[in-house]
Structures are given as structure tokens and as C-alpha cells.
């Protein structure tokens, strides 16, 4: 089934010059970019995006990180795109993510893990509406 999912290429990836590398992997996999924007978000947008994590111990440093510089937000479309993006991204902790995945190849951190992908159809719908409210 064709799905859309929200991806963030996080500030660590932008700082490290890895945006092209990350985008290439999604495109090579066969996913289509249907929206994309370079943004430097504030704390309110971070809180809206990570609403389910705001009470967690790791949230304050996560907020500092995601607001620390520009990121690239995009919507990807393709067959089973939500699960496919999560497989391409790899496990949350870059130290444990499998080689061949974005995090497994390029991250050594649980926080600065380069990318975000929606974790369910419900999250994808909410996150796409939050980041790209005018996308049909
Ligand atoms: P993401 O897929 O964007 O979803 C929540 C984010 O919180 C996650 O990627 C990491 O950047 C961060 N995160 C999750 N768990 C931890 C943790 N235990 N310690 C630090 N950061 C975390």
C-alpha cells in the first residue's frame, strides 16, 4: 500500500554535510520526495513534533539538539514507506544500528542519530500535518 511518511534530516546531519548522502539512500531505495524544506525550528515546534516524549528525561537535551541548527524536513512516498524508512534509518541508537542503515553507517549516538522517521500511520498523518499543513 502506498504511504507517506515524515522524515527529518536532523541538525547533526546538516552540520556534518550528510544531507546528500541521506537523501541519496532514500531516492536509491525508490521512495519519492513529495515535499522538502530547510528549517531552523524553535522550542515550540520541537515540543509539537515530540509531544509524546516531552515528559521523558531525554527530552530537554533532545530539544536543545533539534533546535541547535537547521534541519531538513521532508515527506517521502512509496509502497510501505513508513516501515521502509524505519528500516533504512536503522535502530535509534547509532551504536547498535545495523551496518548498511543510515544510523548504522554514520552515527555513534542515541541522540544525534541523523534522521527521524514517523513510527506509525497515525504518527505520519499527525507529523505531516504539523510540518506541511498545506500539502494535500
Ligand atoms: P527519533 O526517531 O527522532 O525519536 C525520538 C528521538 O529522541 C530519537 O530519534 C533520538 O534522537 C532521541 N532519543 C531517543 N531515546 C533517547 C535516549 N535514550 N537518549 C537520548 N536521546 C534519545
UniProtKB/TrEMBL annotation:
What Gene3D superfamilies is this protein classified in?
Nucleoside diphosphate kinase-like domain (3.30.70.141)
Q: Which EC numbers characterise this protein's activity in its record?
A: 2.7.4.6
**Which HAMAP family does the protein's record reference?**
NDP_kinase
Q: Where is the Nucleoside diphosphate kinase-like domain?
A: 2-136
Q: Which Pfam families match?
A: NDK
Enzymatic class: transferase
Q: Catalyzes what?
A: a ribonucleoside 5'-diphosphate + ATP = a ribonucleoside 5'-triphosphate + ADP; a 2'-deoxyribonucleoside 5'-diphosphate + ATP = a 2'-deoxyribonucleoside 5'-triphosphate + ADP
* Binding residue positions for ATP: 10, 58, 86, 92, 103, 113
Any idea which GO molecular function terms this record carries? ATP binding; metal ion binding; nucleoside diphosphate kinase activity
Key word Hydrolase present: no
* Species the sequence originates in: Nocardioides silvaticus
Q: What is this protein called?
A: Nucleoside diphosphate kinase
Q: Which family does it belong to?
A: Belongs to the NDK family.
Name the cofactor(s) required for activity, per the record: Mg(2+)
Oligomer status and interactors: Homotetramer.
What the protein does? Major role in the synthesis of nucleoside triphosphates other than ATP. The ATP gamma phosphate is transferred to the NDP beta phosphate via a ping-pong mechanism, using a phosphorylated active-site intermediate.
Question: Catalytic positions?
Answer: 116 (pros-phosphohistidine intermediate)
What the entry lists under InterPro entries is as follows:
NDK-like_dom, NDK-like_dom_sf, Nucleoside_diP_kinase, Nucleoside_diP_kinase_AS
Alphabetical list of PANTHER family matching this protein: NUCLEOSIDE DIPHOSPHATE KINASE (PTHR11349)
| Swiss-Prot/TrEMBL keywords | ATP-binding, Cytoplasm, Kinase, Magnesium, Metal-binding, Nucleotide metabolism, Nucleotide-binding, Phosphoprotein, Transferase
User: Which compartments does it reside in?
Assistant: Cytoplasm
**One biological-process term from Gene Ontology?**
GTP biosynthetic process
Kindly state one GO CC term assigned in the UniProt record: cytoplasm
